[in-house]
Structure formats: structure tokens, C-alpha cells
Amino acid sequence: MENITIKDIVKAAEGQLLCGDENKVIKEFSIDSRSGNEDSIFVPIIGERVDAHKFIDGALKINGATFTSEHDKPLTGFEDKPWIKVADTVEAMQKVGTFYRNRMNLPVVAVTGSVGKTTTREMISTALASQKRVFQTIGNQNSQIGVPLTLSHLTAEDEIAVLEIGMSERGQIEKLTNMIRPNIAVVTMIGVSHIAQLKTQENICLEKMDIVKGLPEDGIVFLNGDDKFLAPYRGKLSHRTFFYGLNKECDYRAEEVRVRDGQTLFHFYYKDGEAEKNMEVVLGTMGEHNVRNALVALGVAHQMGLDMEVAAKALSTFHGQRQQMHTLKSCTLIDDTYNASPDSMKASISVLSSMEGVKGRRIAALADMLELGEKERDYHYEVGKFIAGTQVDEVAAYGELSEEILKGIEDNNARIIVKHFETRGELQEYLLTYVHPDDVLLLKASNGMKLKEIAEAFLQNE
């Protein structure tokens, strides 16, 4: 944060200064009592298991100030540092984040959706950064705690911010969009992530669409026109709305999509005034889902008045952080182990299946997709049925739910070899022994299944 004092924070957080210098400058939040500096304010969060208020004494040995919701006076020995009494420490941080964002006069692009938020945010940032100074969400800080942490790092030099917002229960998107006040809102797709909490995809859609509640009257909405839950919003929103996708009715659309030498090529069509324009776009990453990500990135660039040729060229070097491809001595490895849902699982399988020039086998090493609610077994079977229609040669899996993936394959395609393992260690040993240099190996599962450890084992063996 820039030019923010304790006095500003007290006012924004609707708190009470118990002691300390109100003119002290604060530059950032700290939510870890073991980190921070003299210019940061500690935010003791009350979690399900731990109340961080008990770490305030340690935190103030490092940090310059603290919030508290449990003290009426400072601890002995720390009276020289500002203590701000608030009703709720997380809400206080959010209020300060909102206050700081309101001080920053720059356009904000907000991205949400069940799948693809991070890659879409990164791709939009890449297109915009070709001509502007862009600030984007740090890591995966897209939550009720992460968003104000991200906002605190905005600077006066930033020209555009691209921020990712997520949710785990009803009402969270509205709170976050009101915090960041976006000028452009993007919804990537409606899947089944968090369906255990929200019960239906219709409810998930309603929650995601709450993103428009933070837009000004002249705000812009981008929706995935290929998504069956989002396409029906055509003509129903008060804000200017643009659809992107492969559908002919989309405002920003792709045709003639093809893969060549690890890149994805397509013709990009859009309207510039009354004239329809098109250009050839080359992506440095594979997958039809990434084509849609590129379409909205180019759409946002167009609506912000940027040079489209320059923005498109920037995407040719984009590779993303979540799906990484390694050419190893042992095989070609696609590491997509950060997380998984039915839609992202299918997208990754499609990438594996569509790869050209594979001399060996296309092997998918999979594990459970977590937090899918009552229909979790059905979703896993559905993924298996999808794999059965692809060019994948073998699926090796571990985890109780992944057995449903294998069943979906066996019921629909006897050609694909399937193997199930009781532990991740057994799966790892099999893959390290069995995979050959000409093979392509995909690793995909929810983060909690820790397939990343198998990816690291392959990299360490090089």
C-alpha cells in the first residue's frame, strides 16, 4: 500500500486505536506471525482450529502494528506499537482493501468461473501487458482473505489490474466484486467445483454471475458463449455483454482450430465497429479450452482499445503456470497436478489425445477429484466415459473414486489399458519403471491427491 497511515486504517476498518502513532505508515498486511516487517500490520485470523490472536506478541516483534478483536488494551511491552481494535479482523482487512482500491484510479478486470480462472487471468494479463503496465493477482490469492492481500500490492504505476475472485459458498462473489469494483467482469464457465456446498450448477451459476453486482453502469461483461449455463444470459443483462467461444453467435470467436508442433492455431473473428475482422492467432499452449481463454483475452484487449496484432502476438509466448510440459529423457511429461474437476480433467485429456507426432503411447496417470458432493462417483464415471472416446492408450490411477474412471473406460472402450493402484507410491513406482522415452505422460488429479510428487520424481531422475 502507498501513503496509508494508521489513521486511514482505523477509519476504513471502523476500528478504535488503542495505542500507538496514528501517523505511522503501513505498506502491507501480514497474516503469518513469523513474517512481515516494521511497515506491515498483523491480521490475527480466527480459524477453525487456531486463533492467531495468541501469536500477537511474537508477531509484534516483527510487524509494526496489529489488529485485534480480543483485546481492550495492548500486551505489556508492546504499548509503543499501534493496536487497532475491530469487531472482526478479516472484515477489517477487507474494508481496508476496499478503501485502498477506491484510492487507486485504474481499470480493473475481474475473472471468475468454476474452471480456468487462473489461466484466463494470466492470458488476459499477457495480452494487456503487451502495451500496458499490468498488475495481476498474486499466486492463488482469490479468496476472502487473498483478495485484500492482493489489493494491498497495487501501486500508482499500475495502469490495469487483472484480479481473480473465487468462492466456496453463497454470497462470497458479491462481497469480493464490491471490494474490487471491476470495470470488466469475465465468467469462464460453470462446472461442478463446490457443488457440495451449493448443491446444483444452477446455484453455482447464480453465485458466479453475482460478479456483475460490482460493475458500474458502463461496465462490460464477458461470458463463455459455449457454456450452456452462461449462453442464456444473452440479452438479459443491463451491462454491455460480449460472448466468446467457438459458437457462430459469439462476438469474439475462433474457427479452424488446429494443433501443430505443440502450438494451437486458429482464426480469430471479431467486429471493429461495423466491420468484421479476422486474424491468425498462434498460442504457445495447447487445448481447445485455451483457445477460449485466448478469445476473452483478445476481447478484453479490444474493448480497452489496444492494438490487436500486438496483443495476439504476445499470446504466442504464453505457456501458463498450471499446466507445464517437460521434455525429459524418460518421456514427455504434462504436469497438470494443481487441481482437478470433471471439466478440467476432460480438457487435459483432450490435450493429451490431440497431441501430434506421438511415437509412443499416450498415458494418463489420474487420481481422485475431490469435493464433488453426492454425485462424485457419477462425475468420475463420466470422465472415464469421455476418455473412452479419445486417443489415450492407457490410464493408470489410484484413489477410491478413480476406480469409477476406470469403470467408465472399461464399459465403453476395451482398447484402452486400465490399471488401478492402492497407493500413490505404487503408482509412482509403476510409472517410473514402465514409461518409455517416446511416451507422453499426463499427470492430473486434485491437489490433495499429491500427484505433484510423482512429477517431481520424474524431474529428479533426469
Describe this structure in words.
It is a single chain. This protein folds into three domains: 6-90, MurE/MurF, N-terminal domain (Udp-n-acetylmuramoylalanyl-d-glutamate--2,6- Diaminopimelate Ligase, Chain: A, domain 1, 3-Layer(aba) Sandwich), CATH 3.40.1390; 104-315, 3-Layer(aba) Sandwich (UDP-N-acetylmuramoyl-L-alanine:D-glutamate ligase), CATH 3.40.1190; 324-460, Mur ligase, C-terminal domain (Protein-Tyrosine Phosphatase, Chain A, Alpha-Beta Complex). It starts with 5 loop residues before the first helix and ends with a helix. Helices cover 32% and strands 22% of the residues. It has 462 residues and is of the alpha/beta class. The chain has a nine-stranded mixed β-sheet with strand order 7-8-6-9-10-11-12-13-14, covered by helices on one side. A six-stranded mixed β-sheet has the order 15-16-20-17-18-19, sandwiched between helices. A five-stranded mixed β-sheet has the order 1-5-4-3-2, with helices on one face. The mean pLDDT is 93. It is found in: Cytoplasm. Belongs to the MurCDEF family. MurF subfamily. One of its GO terms (biological process) is cell wall organization. This is UDP-N-acetylmuramoyl-tripeptide--D-alanyl-D-alanine ligase. Keywords: ATP-binding, Cell cycle, Cell division, Cell shape, Cell wall biogenesis/degradation, Cytoplasm, Ligase, Nucleotide-binding, Peptidoglycan synthesis.
